[in-house]
Amino acid sequence: MNDLSHRQDGAAPSTAEDTAAASEVTELCARLIRFDTSNYGGGDSRGEREAAEWTAGLLSDSGYEPVVLESAPRRASTVVRIPGEDRDAPALLVHGHLDVVPAEPADWSFDPFCGEIRDGVVLGRGALDMKDMDAMMLAIARSWARRGVRPPRDVVMAFVADEEDTGELGAGFLVDRHPDLFEGVTTAIGESGGYSLHLPDASRLYPIAVGERGSAWMDLTARGAAGHGSRPGPDNAVATLATTLSALAAHRWPVRIVPAVAALLDGLCAHLGITVDPSDPASLAQLGEAAKLVEATVANTLNPTMLKAGYKHNVIPSEATAGVDGRVLPGAEEAFFATVDALLGEKVSRSFHSFAAPVFADHESREFAAMAAALRRADPEALVLPFIMSGGTDAKAFARLGIQCYGFGPGLTPPGFDAWRYVHGVDEQVLVSSLEFGVRVLEDFLRSDPLTVRSDR
Length: 457
What we know:
alpha+beta, six-stranded mixed sheet, four-stranded mixed sheet, globular
């Protein structure tokens, strides 16, 4: 375990005002972790109602008027609107999810839902994904209530269910059934971005997500002639599907550099004084930790993930099915599906298990500039650049309302702390110092007026 409770280089000293939220963010994070909100998928989850009600209780005690909404029994989300100084200004949405992926206790060195604070870290499932951000949101709201602070514009905070599955019982439900909760909202922030990465020259990069690849989860079906396993089977559905899956897995998708990825690469190369070939993993390695931001977003991808066929060794089944996970860059949908259909051929059909289109926001906007400015005030040496997420978040649901969505959950960690190792992994933990840094940056951004910030960076 990492003992990283000391102040990180580059973090701005806190003031009496901005320590108000930092003083309780750690305890809030620990308490949230103690709610086992494991989401097993397919509608099977636990603990979301209890966590949503506890969250709403804290907000109510602070004088706010949150609502708790169930999309299905025990699948609850909490939403609150904090009035701003200018009620006519475009509002901001800050969203975090209360559910977590399951954890197998036997694999962990501590109870996944212990929520302990030990040696400068908070331990437990959700510490980084994303009860840390939930705790920051709560700490800021409660601090504002105690101090009588009003943000410059309305801030809507949403603590949602089901993000770790399809999101349809959380953000999707809110968007489809309760869009009035987000009236006037033009911009949203959520996971994942605004955290530090360490570059080969020892400088710090803070990437802000300005888009996500689309998620195309598809079911593939091959049909053939049923028969006895002892006789030749030229029309074998299992063999057809296996050959098709091999072709899909072996396909090399062409490099396609979208504007945000180009801005990330250009900024990194200029900063480091290097040239990078995005199609060459060895060349990307020059970027150090930042290579992970690029390698999965320079092309579409498709991976076989599930297989099902037959019921007996000596029976050739008439049908075989597979699940595949396709990820699609913004603007590449037509080419992606045309390629998939060509590789499937005539004997394999496809249908959607779920599909969420790619989303993207303007990385030259004043909102992006305001986030970057808040990071630089906390860490004057910060290099802030946009990136595209390889996976997906609830941004895909909120984007359906025409909201520009960014990934901005600030944090600061030292070299050697591999957050990607912990997210969805074992022994998940977040640094206390990172929580305190993050809540100061987040509050700084929430109290800024983007109209006063230059967008040319």
